Amino acid sequence: MNGEFVPEDQAKISIYDSALMFGDMVFEMTRSFNKKQFRLREHLERLYLGLKILRIPMTMSIDDLESACMLTIEKNEPFFERNDEHRLMINVSRGPLGIYAPIFDGKLETTVVIADFPLKWTVSGMAKFYDRGINSVIPSQRAIPATLMDPKIKNRSRVWYQVANIEVSNVEGDNNWALLIDTDGFIAEGTGDNFFMVKNGELFTPEGRNILRGISRAYTMELATELNIKCHEKNIEPYDLYDADEAFLTGTPFCILPTTQINGVNIGDGQMGPMTKLLLETWSRNVGLDIVQQMRDYAAEVNKLTASSAPTPYQFHKEKK
Q1: Strand partners, 25
Q2: Domain boundaries, the chain
Q3: Residue 19 — φ and ψ, nearest 5°?
Q4: Separation of alpha carbons 165 and 314, rounded Å
Q5: Contact of 69 with 37, CB cutoff 8 Å
Q6: Contact 142, 182 (CB under 8 A)
Q7: Contact 280, 153 (CB under 8 A)
Q8: What pTM value is reported for the model?
Q9: Measured distance CA(280)–CA(246) in Å, rounded
Q10: With 0-12 CB in 10 A as exposed, 13-18 as middle and 19+ as buried, what is 165?
Q11: Are strands 194-199 and 246-251 parallel, antiparallel or unpaired?
Q12: Contact at 8 Å (CB) between 244 and 200?
């Protein structure tokens, strides 16, 4: 944290930080496979582009930040178990606001935080979805279009994601994830994931206008090229999804999760489709581990240790009547 290593329970950000005042923070989440970071450089390049657009001053070079990430992993490795993966959370804000400068003796600096956390605690609750699939629910909350606030900048001003999650949490069932449509009625993205559908052996994903252009989304498109699968970026209406053969979500922690329903209606036969499975297997082969089995192993391990009822980044629990 700002060049010093501190225990996570002692890491503090000022109450006057711009991140707290405005959600004025750019961030990235990364993960490892077999403890080797996956696409770390691409994540950092997107981070630095966000910093450039938001005019957040950053004295560290991208090479220095990458080295700091690897050093943070090295410092944490002794505390990690053999099967743990390193999930990095990198947060950068412009620091305390100028009107509070006297409190800091006039020294205002960018807040830079790199936190390392075992991936299993993030993904253990998702393993069941490889069998059941996600029910993508379209809430009344719309995606914010790039003309108002560009979602391509991965920033902490994400309250509309939370509003969508809260709304969807009150739908019957426990496999409901929000799928946002934009102000033109086209499918945009989930609240932390990108969307793909399959029709007649070809892949389709929303245009990159009103979405976060995910690193996992980009890699999935690379996999499609590797497998000679045609992949199209185009406007997709909910109507098109009802007629799809299969669908799935992509995101850094879980890579690919099957979407087997839209608003409670089966997509295809309501099971993980063959192309989704093929892409997952190819991803697994390329990184040298079975992604689905790893998630299932994490679920078995974590379920023995805890039964938390707290909300996750993807799901809220239903309101009690």
Answers
A1: 93
A2: 8-118, 125-305
A3: -65, -40
A4: 7
A5: yes
A6: yes
A7: no
A8: 0.93
A9: 14
A10: buried
A11: antiparallel
A12: no
Beta bridge partners of 232: 204
Return the axis-axis angle of helices 215-226 and 40-54, rounded to nearest 10°. 130
Distance CA 80, CA 86 (A): 8
What is the distance between the alpha carbons of residues 26 and 12, in angstroms, rounded to a whole number? 17
Q: Does domain 125-305 have CATH number 3.20.20.370?
A: no
Q: How many residues does the chain have?
A: 321
**CATH code of domain 8-118:** 3.30.470.10
Distance separating alpha carbons of residues 194 and 213, to the nearest angstrom: 8
List pLDDT tens digits, range 126-174. 999 999 999 999 999 999 999 999 999 999 999 999 999 999 999 999 9
Buried/exposed code over 223-238 (b: 16+ C-beta within 10 A; e: otherwise): bbeeeebebeeeebee
CA 121, 158, 140, 247 dihedral sign is negative
Tokens 């739908």 correspond to: 171
Question: What are the pLDDT digits (tens) for 27-39?
Answer: 999 999 999 999 9
Tell which residue, 174, 276, 195, has the closest CA to residue 240.
195
DSSP helix/strand/coil, 25: strand
The amino acid sitting at 55 is R
187 SS3 class? strand
